[in-house]
Amino acid sequence: xPAQEGHMPPLVSFLAGxxxxxxxxxxxxxxxxxxxxxxxxxxxxxxxxxxxFMVVARVFRNEGDGVRFLSFDAIKKALADPETGAxxxxxxxxxxxxxxxxxxxxxxxxxxxxxxxxxDDARHAKRFRSSLHAVRVIYQQHGIVGMYHGYAGTTLKQAxxxxxxxxxxxxxxxxxxxxxxxxxxxxxxxxxxxxxIVTTYATQPFDTIKTRSQSAEGATTIDAFRSILADDGVKGxxxxxxxxxxxxxxxxxxxxxxxxxxxxxxxxxxx
Length: 271
Prior knowledge:
Elements: H1 10-39, H2 52-61, H3 65-79, H4 89-123, H5 131-142, H6 151-178, H7 185-213, H8 221-232, H9 241-270
């Protein structure tokens, strides 16, 4: 992965990714909450407020990264040039796409389904008492399939987001290293922030469809897509971009900076 050169032990990659993901989620959850609210429908069938500051105010009144980093390292190693070990930009993006599919299948889709259902339910029915209760209710009503509502949208988003996020970061890092630019906290944060911007604009439609699919009642990917077009037209696919951008710029910077620092600390110990 992005981190120190050489072969990084899988345990180091997993632990560093988990710590980085936890801190990133803790720091950016309010904007993620607000973004999700904007993308969901109101009881009247339309979309909620487009003003990010009003949504955040209402919120205050009222993701799987270990798997992702570990998978990316393994897939990246498998796709590297067998003779030189080098990764071209295309191979890096492909590794990111494959990683996104793995993360969506084994971690992201079920957790995103519960998160989105809880946020949506809190606005209206208030059926769910906790995350565990939401899991039980959804399972009783829809079976295991209910945990994978929005799988197509989530997988498209994860494949695209991981490809652009990991790909952009690694391409920037490789370019800097080829020009002997020293890697430090500021550089790591800036690279992560740029990767976040690229990722947001490239994958926002998938994120909006995913959120609609994973509302409390659940919907198919096609139904979610149709409801977005009916409510707001094509521009509705980019609802929540402002709040997601605010989150991904900081989350990208935090995620990769923390990852690099934790990996640098653990690698000599666990290598």
